């Protein structure tokens, strides 16, 4: 059966070029991902590696120009999103694809009450999916749904809070509101960009638990964009490690974190201090992400890689399966022994 | 909110006293002979002395000022040498016409400037935006009296669509005076024919007056909307699938509009004090004409009175603007 049934989201060989003053920058160079319902994927990497742009590319929110997609496909349940008209694409946003942007402090309209913002999203989704609100006057139903959603994301006395303003909420509460907004249209796919980075540590844990719970309840597919291996380990079922515009290692979290094969993945994991990390031994990854305007032809990690050979600098290694869903794009991986 | 209002109203007292004091000093410093002008060239020395005594102009300035301030408390703005009427009565006659003109001009400027600013921001750097920018700069640069003459030439003389000047056709009886605003009074009386005529007479002077605030509001709205469009919550609204019209009005428009409020308040005051050229061109019986005639005959009481009343209206408008900020953006609401 699996070959007949397309995955919830499939990104294939996605390339994105960004026009800059100094010429075109190759920001994404062949991103590939397959996400099924119920899976929570962590998309992890340093700042500037293209994880946010990958996330924004799915609902086609990257302004073109300056961006341009020379190649690639993004398919939702088999339907190629890149080929849709803007009008059809708009009908999918919020309704089939939910999105949470990076900063909860600036993602809410400061001049509208929380309840009105939630209800507007519900009304927009209901235009394409009337079953969402059920019978009766739409505005009333949308407000009722808004209250239900606020309650579901753990905001106390939700009905009264509908008339609150965004600035009256704390960062964690705003993030809860944004989760409610992203999920009020009952999407199948949720893309969350650094949903916990702007929050205090205890609140981070609450929000992650909330998102995991909502994903499990609704059978959502989820992409969690993060720079933290800790978040991946805590919340995700799968992980895709991005470096300089492409995915260098991917697989189930247990596989990748237990047996990291790419030197970059190892370096990222070593940068997370553990309980037994001795003082003064915190490891930073030497070097920086390469200049995307003058990218080397070979593996983009080669300039920072301890094991790079001339062959690495000549040709880019493709993603090669290692078994158990684990794949790596490296000519000299740490060969993990698979049973 | 109430405390904010009270504090602002308390500040009015000193402002008014200061304004009148400055006006009084300036009036005395000006060279000239107002009594001579008012009495006429054939008046005798005794007649002039009687006139000066009647208007209290023979007393020292500080004494005149004190009795003026005392009169203010009773709503008495003194008497005009020229019309021999109490200034307050004169102003009550002329102010509504000016107010009608300014209100119509500002309504036009806001009703067109806000949406056009929003749309040109959306079409940033495409040809409708470029055209709008050129026209806006043109509208700001053209002197208002010249614009008035141009409008008269095109719409009244060539096309003959609209009347040349005045508030109503000579043969039309004005509606019963309630507010003094001819259009409003006609509407209150249910006299639709007169209302139509009044609107046709109002159109050209209001347009002449409206163009520069329209251009200023448009440019401010455009700049502010472009800034708002780069905000995360606009991307978020798009990501959540909100319809384009809703994003334009509720997300971008609502957040961009507060920046234009300051311009609206300032232009309101500016128009109020600057209608005289347009009133002259269109033969509009307003405050500007009254004040100009008073200045030319060195009749200071009406000048001070007009300055005081326009100043008060200006303060009231800006108070309303401050309150409107809070209505639009809850983060700046006053306790």
UniProtKB/TrEMBL annotation, chain A:
Residues 9-269 form the ABC transporter domain. InterPro entries: AAA+_ATPase, ABC_Ni/Peptide_Import, ABC_transporter-like_ATP-bd, ABC_transporter-like_CS, Oligopep_ABC_C, P-loop_NTPase. It is found in: Cell inner membrane. GO terms for cellular component: plasma membrane. Keywords: ATP-binding, Cell membrane, Membrane, Nucleotide-binding, Transport. It comes from the Bacteria. The keyword ATP-binding applies. This is Peptide/nickel transport system ATP-binding protein/oligopeptide transport system ATP-binding protein.
TrEMBL record, chain B:
It holds the Pfam family BPD_transp_1_N. One of its GO terms (cellular component) is plasma membrane. Residues 95-325 form the ABC transmembrane type-1 domain. It is a multi-pass membrane protein. It is found in: Cell membrane. Keywords: Cell membrane, Membrane, Transmembrane, Transmembrane helix, Transport. GO terms for biological process: transmembrane transport. The keyword Ribonucleoprotein does not apply. Its main location: membrane. The chain crosses the membrane at residues 9-30, 101-122, 134-161, 202-221, 256-282, 302-328. The keyword Nucleus does not apply. Belongs to the binding-protein-dependent transport system permease family. This is Peptide/nickel transport system permease protein. It comes from Rhodovulum visakhapatnamense.
